[in-house]
Each structure stands twice: as C-alpha cells, then as structure tokens.
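Lay summary. Proteins are chains of building blocks that fold into shapes, and those shapes determine what they do. In this project we predict the shape from the chain. Here is one chain we studied, written as its sequence of building blocks.
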Amino acid sequence: MLFAAMAAAVPAHAETLPIEAVYPAGSDNLAILNTLRMGSFNGRDGSSLALELEQQLRNVSVRGEAYYQIFVGGGGPRADGTVTGSAYSSVENNVEIVQETECVAKNDKGKCIEKRVVNIRCTRRSVTLTYTLSVVSPRGERLYSMSKPSVTSNLICPQTYNVAPVEVVIASLISNAARELRFEFAPAQVRTDIRVKEGTSGLQGAAKKTFKNGIAATKRNVASACKLWTEVDYLVPNHAPTLFNLGLCAESDRDYDKAEQLYRRTAELDRSERYATESLERLARRRKAEQQLAMHASRRTR
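And here is the predicted shape, written in a compact code that computers can read:
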C-alpha cells in the first residue's frame, strides 16, 4: 500500500532491474528502538487492535533479522518503549434516496419504449474506527502519539447483495490500522522492479548493439547487463539511458553516492527525465532508512 509509488508502473513487456531496498519508518523515534512492551489498550476494540499490532511488529524483519523483541504485560525485562492505545468502533445508518431509471413498457421485440425515474430508499452505512496510540520511554518521555479515525462507507439498497456484516468491516478496519501503524514503527524491506531505459538515440554500431545486449541480459544476469552498459559508457560517455541504467546498477549494489552521481548526470542531460528525479527521491528515502538502521543497531550494542 505505502510502496505503490516507489517505482514507476512497469508495462508487462518492459525490461526491469530488481532493486531490494529498505525504506524508512514514519517515526525516527520508534525506528531506533529495539525492545517494545505491549501495554494496555482501552475501548471495546482496543484488545483486538493490540493483538493485531503485536503480530505485525513481531513479523517485522529487515535483512533477515527480527527488528523488535516484544514483551507483553507488566514486569519482566525493561523495554525501550511501552505501547498503549485505544480503539472504539461505531456504526451510523442514514437514509439516502437514490434515483434510478426503470422500464415501464416494452414493444413486442422486448425493447424498452417507455421509462420513468423512480426514487429508491437506500441506507448509507458508515462504520468508523477511532484509534489512538502512544509510546513512552522508561523515563516517561513520550516518543510517539497519534489519534485517527478510519471510516468505511457503503450504500445499501434493496438490490444490494453480498453486504459484509458490520463485524467483518470492523475487523478489516482494525487490521488496516495495525498495518499502517507498523510502518510508523520500523523500516520496511521491499523488492521493486524498476524499468530500465531502452532508448538508443545517439548510439551507433558496436555501442548500440552492446546497449541492446545489456537490455536483453536483464532477464537472466543483472551483473552481465551492468558490465555491458559500462562498456557503452566508455564508448559513448554522455548517453542518458546508459547513465540511468548504470545508476540502477549502483543502487542495486547499495553504492548510493555513485548512484546519485549517475542519476544527476542523467537529469542534467535530459531535463524531462522523470525517472532520474524519482530515483533521486528514492535514494533520499533509502539513505534515511540506513540512518534509522544504524541508530537501531547502535542502541542494540549498548
């Protein structure tokens, strides 16, 4: 959900380079913590939100390692942060009149020859989950707090079928809230397929053939593709698509400085190149995530 915009949409036929990236948590204060204690959650839906959030946080893993150690209830080891909150659901039903056109007369061939507008009495059902969350340090410092309503609205008419029960809608709202909160707590590791640039304008002969071979190689051997594009860059130093693709190679290797340099050169050569701009923005997020991971690791070694 949060990472849909991290990469440009990739058509089915396009060649891509896989980028395994870690993106930052919403909160720096939460991202640096190593241990969490799940405290009390108030409200009729508080316990359900607490369980969903606890499971989400237990499942957080970055580069093969569990991110948090989770404690539940009072007593036991001291935690870096104690998580408390609340969750309340409510349902509101309001009458809503909807106009529809219906046929009142047909000819002998079954074709409608007379219609009329009728008013249909429907119900607008709105299910709201209002939830809060707070995380405090062992010294009582507030590290994070939030309050948010989440609403699902459905128009239910006499001919509406497969209407989800209220209990199911509430459960879905709680699950969605827990997933959103998870991204506030910890960085997320995501694999995205970034479309490579395939333009050959400005290339001729061996350089053009080598560039195309690099495009084809992305399907089976990324390292080989990157090597071929390096050869093209030697032959034709300022070919924007080649520079962009080499930027992807450097980013894939986590060489952010080199990747940034290549993306900036691409943007300078082609001011309309949105992929380079998007890639620079992606790099900035990745650098922030690395800072969070470094702080997280430093606290673990204290």
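What the prediction tells us: Residues 3-12 have pLDDT under 50 and may be disordered.
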